Amino acid sequence: MDKIRIILLLCFVLCYPTIINAKNGSNEPQKENLVQKGFVDASDFGFSPSASGKENTIALQKAVDKGGSITVSTPGIYKVAGTVYVGSNTSLIFGNNVSLKKVNEEGDFTHVFLNKGALSKTYNEHISIEGLNLIVNGVDKAMTEVYGLRGQIAFFYVKDLKIERFRCYDFASVQFCVHVCTFEDLIIDDIIIHGKKDGIHLGRGNRFTIRNGVFKCFDDAIALNANDYATSNPELGWITNGLIENCYDLYEEETVGNFCRLPAGAWIDWKPGMEVQQSDVVISNGRLYRVQMQPDGKVYKSLTPPTHEKGSKVLDGINWGMVQEDVTYTAGVRNVTFRDIFLEKPRLGFEFRFGYGPYNRSYYPGAEIPIPKQFTFDNIQVLYDEPTDLISVNTPVDVLTICNSSIKDNKISFYETPDLKDYLKTQINIYGCSFNNEGVFELVKNCVNGKKILLKTSANIELGTNFSATVVPGKGEIIVESDLTGLKD
């Protein structure tokens, strides 16, 4: 009998809150529990498909300021007329059939989402955006809060960031779609991006994954731009330790750029009388400074060192922007694997680049030589028939490994750039690939004076009729150890 009483008492204690809630006809305690657990619905703050863009921007900002998990569950198109600033420990979760649409009720603006620390160069951590459908609607403005940061979705100084199930079909010709710079631990997963500029544009950072992406971009699908135009990244340095997999570069008649661009750069300490141009970088007073002028090719003589702590200052007719306080003399990309990449668009696949021209001079004469290192290209499927470079290189690079790939008339080319005197040695390892080209195929072309290339191929399959591989050493040297017809000993 005592055991029965104890059991009945426990049942009453456990069921009492439910009984009271049912009696009162109220679900408020359940709602309070959700709030206590960090779940907030943006509609509670006035975020609505029927509200104006200005009202929605204010409402969503109020919800995001709560932190935790913010949901948008009611289907509809939500207008936004300004940037929403996201802090640490915040997840934005957009339900099915929910879209955000930029509107210029108060003028054009740049970012839909920007982390709060971007304005003060203070790291935000543990942020995720899930299920966002973005309609750009022609609202396209290069920069607003941070010089060089131009993403529709942008993060600058961020750790542990995840963007998942993102869609955008109409981003325009001025802004990048997703732009992240100065980061650690980035995951971008399940994305479809169509538009007229770069799809995903990264600046310096460490540890990243981009996977399950479908791109239809006029410019670069993915840009790993550790060094870039002054107007296209707020800071400079190295992009390291990444994986890019299961991505599609869809066919489009008009195009520029590449599936993936990997620029490098280097600069020197400021010295009196040095000549500089737009986007040049110098080290002065323990900081990086950059020329921020018009891209007209004009050369300036610098007589006064930049020393200001922030912002920009005009010295000797040169506008110097203070870029960052941690000093580096080089920038580039290292330790990246590309896996399961499907190239439908007939354009250059992967470009290791020193920029040279009115917009940017990546390598300043006499600077330390930056060395991009360790790149693997696994299951690269070329799905078009036009002859293009699969890989184009005008920087030093140590090792390129290509495996399990399907290659047509797509060679690896090495080119020169002004001012660089030594391109160092490059080793290329190609194995387990199928070669589909008919007749003579130019596999490696060396256009660099004195450049040494070591080429090794093994376990490959020749599918083209009368296939025969060849290499063009130019004024350099290519040492070959190969299983391919035409290159065998």
Helix tally equals: 3
The oligomeric status of these chains comes to single chain
Largest sheet: 28 strands, mixed
Tell the overall outline: globular
Based on secondary structure, the structural category is mainly beta
> What portion of residues is helical?
under 10%
**Residue ranges: pLDDT <50 for 5 or more in a row?**
7-14, 16-36
Rg result: 27 Å
Q: In percent terms, what proportion of residues is strand?
A: over 45%
Number of strands: 38
Mean pLDDT: 93
N/C terminus separation: 94 Å
List keywords for this structure.
3 helices, 46% strand, 489 residues, mainly beta, 5-stranded mixed β-sheet, globular
Report on this model:
Helix content is 9%, strand content 46%. It is built from three helices and 38 strands. Helix 3 links the parallel strand 1 (39-41) and strand 2. The radius of gyration is 27 Å and the shape is globular.
